[in-house]
Design goal:
27% strand, alpha/beta, binds magnesium ion, binds adenosine-5'-triphosphate, Rossmann fold, globular, 4-stranded antiparallel β-sheet
């Protein structure tokens, strides 16, 4: 069986105004692989993530999940396999820790449960296990997330991504709003939980030093082009200079 989970093939994205955000991008993401995307502002990192999520249409190219092409509104085949983590956490700030986490499994939660806030014991138990896994077990899980620190909120964000047992997590600058030590802790947590649960990760970052310890592989993007795609251990100063010069 192929080890490729997600294949991005000859993808082009042109925004109105003739802005070429992705220029013939080819990426293979393997099972259980952690990839960091580096690149200056405007290089196309978020566009790439949005394209994989089906939030932005392609001008050219194909995206395959487990060899199935899901262009052309066929996003349903991957909806339950992809989870996201965002820079601004994207939580429901007035809701509790546990409710935010359970909302990550929304595809499997019926609308009346959402309305009345009643969850099956099995879902609650799963959420509690994940709360422990992300290191939030010392906090009352009924606490509103707006009363948590940024690092704690991103732990909720990670838990929400994990609860649906995805095959891949897409993270767009997940540590940009955090202090350096917390950022390091959060990236370590993403790496540890992804490896433990056999999840692939595609994560955009601005910190090159973090990318080297976090990722198995690093992709450098500039002006919509892939400049390099290498194992993290083989990234040279030369590569980074080329990317940011
Ligand atoms: N909705 C949009 N409409 C038009 N142009 C856009 C849109 N979104 C992004 N762009 C343009 O596409 C290019 C790539 O933007 P993108 O947001 O993907 O970059 P990025 O690498 O994520 O940058 P950053 O590091 O600042 O987040 C930029 O030139 C940007 O101005
Ligand atoms: Mg971006």
């Amino acid at each position: 069986m192929s080890n490729t989970l997600l294949k991005i093939e000859s993808v082009c994205k042109i925004y109105p105004g003739n802005i070429l955000a992705l220029n013939n991008v080819n990426i293979n993401i393997n099972n259980n692989e952690i990839i960091a995307i580096l690149g200056p502002s405007g290089s196309g990192k978020s566009t790439l993530i949005r394209t994989i999520l089906g939030l932005t249409s392609l001008n050219k190219g194909n995206i395959y999940f487990r060899s199935k092409n899901y262009k052309d509104n066929n996003f349903n085949i991957i909806r339950n396999s992809i989870a996201t983590i965002y820079q601004n956490f994207n939580l429901v700030s007035r809701s509790s820790i546990i409710k935010n986490i359970i909302l990550g499994d929304i595809a499997k939660v019926s609308s009346w449960r959402l309305l009345f806030n009643v969850w099956p014991k099995e879902t609650q138990d799963k959420a509690k296990d994940i709360i422990e896994e992300v290191g939030l077990n010392d906090i009352d899980y009924n606490k509103r997330v707006e009363n948590l620190s940024g690092g704690q909120q991103q732990r909720v964000g990670i838990a929400r991504a994990l609860i649906g047992s995805p095959d891949i997590i897409l993270a767009d600058e997940p540590v940009s709003n955090l202090d350096p030590q917390t950022a390091k802790d959060i990236l370590n947590l993403i790496r540890k939980t992804a490896k433990k649960n056999n999840i692939s990760v595609l994560c955009s970052l601005h910190q090159t030093n973090f990318a080297k310890t976090f990722a198995d592989r690093i992709i450098g993007m500039k002006e919509g082009n892939i400049l390099f795609d290498k194992p993290a251990k083989k990234i040279l100063k030369f590569d980074l200079n080329k990317l940011y010069k």
